[in-house]
Amino acid sequence: MYVLIAGGGKVGTNLTRSLLQAGHEVTLIEQKPYRFDKLEAEFEHQVIRGDATEIFVLERAGIRRPPDLLVAATGDDEDNIIICQLAREKFGVGNVIARINDPRNQPYFDLLGVSPTVSATGAILALIEHEVPEHGLIHLLELRKENLEIVEVTIDDHANAKGKRVGSLRLPEGARLISVVRDGNAEIPDDSTQLQPGDQVLAILEPGKEDELRRVLLKD
Amino acid sequence: MKAIVIGSGRVGSAVALQLQGSGWDVTVCDENEDALGRLGEGWTGGFVVGHGMDLQVLREAGIEEADAVVVTTDGDNTNLVIAQVAQKMFEVPTVIVRILDPARAQFYASRGLRIVCPTSSAIETLVGAVREAETV
Questions:
Q1: Do residue B88 and residue A112 have CB atoms under 8 angstroms apart?
Q2: Is the CATH number 3.90.76.10 carried by domain A2-121?
Q3: pLDDT in tens, A74-128
Q4: Is the CB of B80 less than 8 angstroms away from the CB of A82?
């Protein structure tokens, strides 16, 4: 596979090294002279110096072949967005992956159709949330294209839904309970399933309706 | 009519002042508070300190009611992202953006952004001025 990587920081460098070791062909683009010198000592002709948001630099790196995959891994979210837009829309690169540095910029990547994205900060935040659920609701999976997400809720002794049948719950519009894990066994709930303390419930819903779901299942 | 100018350098501040002079309600955004100085002491329009990539800053500047947005920060890629956000997320009727790199300017112009590229204009003018000598 031929991979073009923009940005020779820690992410781009380690990615380049790993892909080369796995036998792939890689071209890395780095702008800063002091970084480039070090990278050139290790990767020789497989790294080129330049601003990866400049069209002629991308061309020199071989974007017209085109690569099977482009990874925009610079430390600048605007640059990563523009690199991916140019790669996909000007040069017809089929697969791009963009690094997000500031998770607040995620909406811009989504708006401009740059996906998939990877955010270390976002991933760590999600892990923290999983370990320390702030409001009893854990995000498990986001289906961005479908505008849906899957969350996990644990029913406790004080939960509003304790002892209630699924059919009697006034779930937010479009939300469904998709699984109930009780004593280690997962079941697909129907209207007659009665929720008990200790049940781990998976629900699918539209982002933004978490509070409504929390009120129905847990507390007001 | 309401306009927002993002990036208050030499170009942005002059655009803001001229628009205000012709009766527009203008709000200027800049990361740097000192940029307010370029607008002069008599500036009566809005001024929001913050990065143009920050949705809260854009909303505070009134982008939801803006008739026009002018994007003139010193970064081409920042400008391209902000302009697309203004156009696609907030559906501002007139979005115009300054891009220094002619190659990116040409590509994004072909995708429907209104772009001003001072570099291209300078090249054209310089070449034109020299060519005038050909006919002499």
A1: yes
A2: no
A3: 999 999 999 999 999 999 999 999 999 999 999 999 999 999 999 988 888 878 8
A4: yes
Q: Alpha-carbon distance A73 to B50, whole Å?
A: 25
What the block records as the tokens of B87 is 């156009």
| Fold category of A128-217 in CATH | Alpha-Beta Plaits (3.30.70)
Q: What interface predicted TM-score (ipTM) does this complex get?
A: 0.92
Burial of A14 (0-12, 13-18, 19+ CB in 10 A): exposed
Residues sharing a CB contact under 8 Å with residue B93, sequence separation 6 or more, in sequence order: B67, B68
Residue written as token pair 């995620």: A106
Q: Chain B contacts of A112, Cβ < 8 Å?
A: 81, 84, 88
Mean pLDDT of chain A: 92
Total structural domains in chain B? Answer: 1
Select from A31, A54, A80, A85 the residue whose CB has the most chain B CBs within 10 Å, as the one to mutate to test that interface: A85
Q: Do B77 and A82 touch (CB under 8 A)?
A: yes
CATH of the domain at B91: 3.40.50.720
With the CA atoms of B101, B104, B110 and B111 taken in that order, what torsion angle do they form, in degrees rounded to the nearest 10?
-130
CA atoms A19, A23, A27, A31: torsion sign: positive
